[in-house]
Amino acid sequence: MLQKVVHWYFSKRSLPYWAVVLLDSISIFLSGLLIAVLTDGTVATVLHWKSFTLSMSAYVLCYMVGMRILSTYTGIIRHSSFRDLIRVISANLIGLSLTLLLRVLLLRWGLSVLGYYDLVALFLIATFAMWLTRVGVKILYEALNKSKDSKRVFIYGTRNGGVSLAKSISNENSEYMLAGFVSADDKYIDKMLMGVKVVKNDLAMVDKMQSCGASVLLVSPLYSDVFRGQQDLIDRLIEANIRIHMMPPAVEWDGKSDLQHESLREVQVEDLLPREKIEVDMERVGQMLTGKRILITGAAGSIGSEIVRQIVIYNPSEMVLVDQAESPMHDLRIYLSKEHPEVKAHTIVTNICNQLRMEELFKQFKPEYVFHAAAYKHVPMMEDNPSESVQNNIYGTRVVADLAVKYGTTKFVMISTDKAVNPTNVMGCSKRICEIYVQSLDKAIKVGKVEGMTQFITTRFGNVLGSNGSVIPIFREQIKSGGPVTVTHPDIIRYFMTIPEAVVLVMESGAYAKGGEIFVLDMGEPVKIDTLARNLIKLSGYQPDVDIAISYTGLRPGEKLFEEKLMDEEGLKTTPNRLIHIGSPVLFDTDQFLLQLQALMQACHENREDIAQLVLDMVPTYRPANERCDEKRGSAV
């Protein structure tokens, strides 16, 4: 019978209000009965039961006034919090005040009344009984609701974020059971918090988690950066097959509102890369973009589409989106019409090398800002197709840049790559030539050789996570297929940044720029690709070299062992944002460069075999990949 009652109650969403009021009223009445028996004895209480019942009914009504004022009956008992308990005591204080006044009237009417001390005792015992009811129901519910299948979890962080997560997983729909907290603050170590122990933030915590049967670590958003910096701990957790849940980088918590554990997701390997939190002067970016006409090339690509998503929120007056990829452009068009119908956006399918079509667009829309993200970027592909690299990257950039000057664009922001620094391949050289060309245009405008007002800015950064053809999706497919995971070299390293992080820094660079600069984005610490592959295998539930093999295939044509962010002669200047640096323009003979560029364009149109060599000759900092690798190995000896 009891089991049926318990099942009935806990299967309902909540008790009706009248049932909660009745339950609290019974607690008050029984508390009064206990005081009467202890004070007057059982016999006297029974003899005056009618008078006692009338008096206690009046007292209960007084307490019900407090319940009504503070609505103590509206909460769900099994989810009672400390705030609910405070409301109960406040309501009962109102009830106590009214009963003290009522006692005077009851004496005049000749009814049996409790003494002043007894009324205070009634308040204390009734409050305790009502608290006990709520806490007891909560404990019983949690004990019955948490099945054997519930996952035991530790929470990384003990302050607002951690406590908020702990409250969230106590809800009825949670699949988790709280087993402990992790803290770096010595004053919390070995203390009890919300009924569980707080352990120290060190490698030994992994063993403590395993001894408690905990299989999940929830990381408070307030401690995400601290956690990412503990690579040894992360490796140990992954090896112990403990799942790590964090808030996605694109989502932020204000530190005040209730935090739900559903906001966290199981980490991907890219979430664990050590990166500093990026803070951007969004007000300054907004002032630059709001109400402006903006043209974006490569708008359907990984970087270009993110530029679109981040610019559209500033309500530009018009957006002209250019890309030659029809299907991704169609997807982008649907996204904008659904999410931002108020923004006038033109999706143009064309090639930036089509000079006549591009001129039509500039003449019609006269963009005030141009973000040039269109480029071929895959090193091995461009080694095999140097003419296409020249046509799209170099000639396409020249077309768009020249038109920007001709039609009065205010700022031209070109997306470059760290592969343009001391390049070892055709793609890197082509992007370096693009950098030199826009710098030469900016210089020519400043000295009066070219009539115009456009400021040219270059932003340079490394690999972006999640971009088309990036290494992580390739690794995932290889793991899904059972391996092997292919890494070109055991010592190869790369800089990584998420697409939204890179784009937001690109936009702020545009706000800082005065023209001619090369902005270098701080990508954080370089990551060893071999380590990245091994961690991804472990996060997928396998053991590297046991379940999934790792195969070293050798560096591909034109591939570097490591990337650089700037050339020595460029130097480095700071900006108000410590993650954005400025490389000083390198002096070069503009006239000779333009002659070489013209010869290169001619060779490209004739599809000559010496295109690659002409590209390499134009970049003095070009070094063959094997020479760069030998230099790197030598410096490590």
Explain this structure to me?
- The chain is an alpha/beta fold.
- The protein contains 23 helices and 22 strands.
- It has a nine-stranded mixed sheet, with helices on both faces. The chain has a seven-stranded mixed sheet with strand order 3-4-2-1-5-6-7, sandwiched between helices.
- The protein is elongated, with a radius of gyration of 35 Å.
- The model is unreliable at 5-12 and 626-637 (pLDDT under 50).
Summarize the structure.
This protein has 637 residues and is α/β, with parallel strands linked by helices.
Rg of Cα set: 35 Å
Class by SSE composition: alpha/beta
The geometry reads as: elongated
Largest sheet: 9 strands, mixed
Mean pLDDT, as a whole number?
79
**Beta-strand percent range:** 5-15%
Number of helices: 23
Low-confidence stretches: 5-12, 626-637
Helix content: 40-55%
Number of E-state strands: 22
In order across it, which strands form the biggest sheet?
A: 10-9-8-11-12-13-18-22-21
Distance between the termini: 79 Å
